[in-house]
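Team,

Forwarding the record for the chain on the shared tracking sheet. I've put the sequence and predicted structure together so nobody has to dig through attachments.
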Amino acid sequence: MNRFFLFLALCSFALVLTFSSCSDDDGNAVQEFDAKDISKSREEKDNLFKNSDNSPLAIDRRSDFIGLQYYAISDEYFVFADFTPFETTDTIALPTSKAGDFRKMIRYGKLNFQIAESKSLVLIAYKELENKQDQLFVPFKDKTSGFTTYQAGRYLEISEPDEQQMCIIDFNRAYNPYCAYNAEYSCPLIPSENILPVFIKAGEKNPPSK
């Protein structure tokens, strides 16, 4: 399996898509903020990094690994987004961290949202050509990138929109690509259209020092 797709699959298992749900008055499923689940996902990811054969860390680094660093969990960064699908879903080739390597993706739709008192923000959601699950790939950079978070940016996977074209973006689940830990991995770079003009003080911070 391509290392990037293995990486996404592992992160989906360990971190990203484990929302809890409740029901509204009409019996529809509603996802809700769940700090305990986020904490559990972070513990599982630390265990994967330290003990799994699929860890991105080199074997000689695993014994000294003491865990990834995160911002404090906050519901401020759990937001609802309006999703607008593109009328034409073009297939594009995103450059990656390895020269000459590209990742084909579908440019799927636009996410409009706000964080606290910020102005309306926009991120573009993509879909992997080989991804058969109901997931959208949302790479992004923000004003923390290169300071308290990984300079090349971070990733999110989110569930596809519901019938009302609503999505949940939980930045507490933002994570670093595996190339942040091991140059052997090839990871898509952040498109210029997904650079946010705000500080996203949520999710994974800079990788631990080597």
